[in-house]
Amino acid sequence: MALPEAQPAEVLRAWQKDDLYEKQLAGSLARLIPSHYASKAVPVSSLLYKSFTTLKDLQTLGEEYSGIVQVDDTYHKLPSFSSRLLSILLSAFGENLTRRLLSHIEKQVERNATLKPEAQNFILVVLKALNNIVPQVESIHRALSYITGGPLQIGKTVTGINYVHVRPAAAAYYAHLRLLGVVTLLHAFISCGQSFYQAKKHMDDMKDFPNEVDNNKSCIACLEEIVQPCVLICGHMFCMNCCYGALESCPLCRTPFTKNTVVPLMNYNPGTM
Fold first, then answer.
1. Boundaries of each RING-type domain copy (predicted)?
2. Of the candidates 120, 54, 61, which has an alpha carbon nearest to the alpha carbon of residue 87?
């Protein structure tokens, strides 16, 4: 006979305990490694902690404290080694890998000269909006776990890992978790809505930008008067300070360029054309 499914309160209590121990381990690890690697301490500590517990078919300290055990989707067997390994990697590095993937796609779009400027700007704005809502995806999943039960980590949900409890649970703690889940869900949806609203507002602002600036006296990049005009390989013109400054791609069409391809226009006044 299968053991009863663990209630949200037990799962939350176990997660809080494990998170505390992982943070303590990360703090100790950060003091041992060079300061420029300190940001890696949190995912590495999570990987180490779960490798010596979950990966070895042992309860974590939080799971032992709450009296729950990980099982597969049949609720009759322990999760397979591959499921446990994948869930650990997703929990430790999932958000970072997602952000890196979005950044890589963004750079590829910026370097793609075949896309029209309008399509390119639209894709870049959408990618930036997705990058902003990555943390909210975890919040939404956690809120649903508060309401309906199940693991709090997305990695465990993806791999089909769940929890059963091996000792009686106190039923008095569950009602307020559903309320917390609803509030968390609303907050996450509002945050996502704000991100998409900012993206739409940015797209509307981009529509006001001219596609050509040859007949404009102002530099689109710095909004100052073009005193020493330079033209890029895409044909758009900006001031010399911007072209030889921080710009690495055209602000209008996103075409990348190098400093040696910038062409200064001598004895040319944009206002005379």
1. 219-254
2. 54
Q: Are strands 68-71 and 162-165 parallel, antiparallel or unpaired?
A: antiparallel
Q: Looking at 72-197, which runs of residues are DSSP E strands?
A: 162-165
Q: Are strands 263-264 and 229-231 parallel, antiparallel or unpaired?
A: antiparallel
The number of C-alpha atoms within 13 Å of 252 and in the hemisphere containing its C-beta is 20
The more confidently predicted of residues 253 and 150 is 150
Q: For helices 117-148 and 81-111, what crossing angle results, to 10°? A: 160
What is this structure's pTM? 0.68
Residues 17, 6: Cα–Cα separation, whole Å: 16
Mean pLDDT of 248-267: 81
Sole residue written with tokens 């609720």: 75
Dihedral pair phi/psi, residue 246, rounded to 5°: -85, -10
